[in-house]
Every structure is written in structure tokens, then in C-alpha cells.
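Morning. Coffee machine broken again, so started the prediction first thing and wrote up yesterday's gels while waiting. Chain of 117 residues, entered below exactly as on the submission form.
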Amino acid sequence: MFRFDASLAVRLHRDPVDFRKGINGLTAIIEQSLALDPFAAVVYGFTNRRRDRIKLLFWDKNGFWMLLKRLEADRFTWPRRQQAVAEITIEQLQWLLDGIDIDAMKPHPKRNYRSAN
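Came back before lunch.
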């Protein structure tokens, strides 16, 4: 399994894209539609209409990586967010690639205490 550095940000494009698009087409979406920097330390994720494929695009020092995962019988559960771009963590990306619904995962709430008593 390909593993990403934990310091990378992950941004998922909410709407399905035409999967005939390659690196140039996806970077055009990142720059023009999303107004983001394709050369940033970010993994950009895209899915198709059937949600059985994911393309990941990111810049690595001197060139782009584009990874594709195609499911044979299942579907990816894409985050249900209203924003055009969903921001998730690398850990959540791994869960998504493993078939886990990341919106259903709820961590314990953060607690802020003033005293240990």
C-alpha cells in the first residue's frame, strides 16, 4: 500500500469529474474551479459519477503523481459536505480508500480542563 506523509493536507473535490481527465485536466480544475494551488503540499482527490474510482493528484518536488484506485464491486462513500472542497486528514484518506464512511466516524470530543482535580 502506498503511504502518504502525515504532514500532507488532503482536499477532496465534492462533485464527480470526467475520469478521462489526466494530470493537465485535473490541475486545471484545481486552479480554475477551486482557486487552489496544485503545487502545494496537498493531495487532491477526485471521484467519478459511480463512485467506484478515485484519482489522487499531488506534486512531489519535480513532478506530479497521479494514482487511481478502481473498485470491482463496491462503491466509495464520498464525504457529504456542502463545500466545493472537503478537507480531511491523511488518516481519513486511508480510511476512505479502505472503504470506511469517514462521516460516520466520530472521535471523542476534545476536553479543555482548567485543573486536574
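The mean pLDDT is 90. Going to sketch it on the whiteboard this afternoon.
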